[in-house]
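Researcher: Next entry in the queue.
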Amino acid sequence: MDLTLTEEDFLAICGSTKFAAEMAKRAPFSSLSQAVELSRDIWWNEVDIASWLDAFAAHPEIGDGKSLKGRWSKGEQSAALSTATDSTLQKLVDWNQKYKEKFGFIFLICASGRSTPEILDALKLLNILINSTEVQICGNAFVFNEICCFLLSFQWTLHSCCHYFQSISWKKR
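Model: Structure for this entry, 173 residues:
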């Protein structure tokens, strides 16, 4: 089964128009591993730093309930949000603001399965230890690529399940 996603689908996954356009040009994909491998190649070899920054800006801030509009972020951040208190959410907001002021873009972390205290510790650590915006852009680019691969896997699974249920429901009728 091939996975055919549109440029709009890839834009929803990543937020970079360059990445979305390049992925859409190469679709359909015959396997998840092919799609993930290609997404990594495009991210690291064809998408420039300005496009990385566009992708970062399109991603919701960790812990910001107002920006968790899409199904992707709600799912990815569900463990963190379920372990959050008003106090830890406020600390995330405060440390996110410090991070943005220091680096000029939002803090990114693969939040899947992580608690709010774990994420807050990572955010504080980066704020304290890293003093180079260039180093943090590269760190965010690495994290963001992993998030995109996670979301691409989610999309692949969703597509596969829908395809399967459509095929069996028609057979029974």
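Model: The CA atoms of residues 5 and 24 lie 7 Å apart.
Researcher: Noted, moving on.
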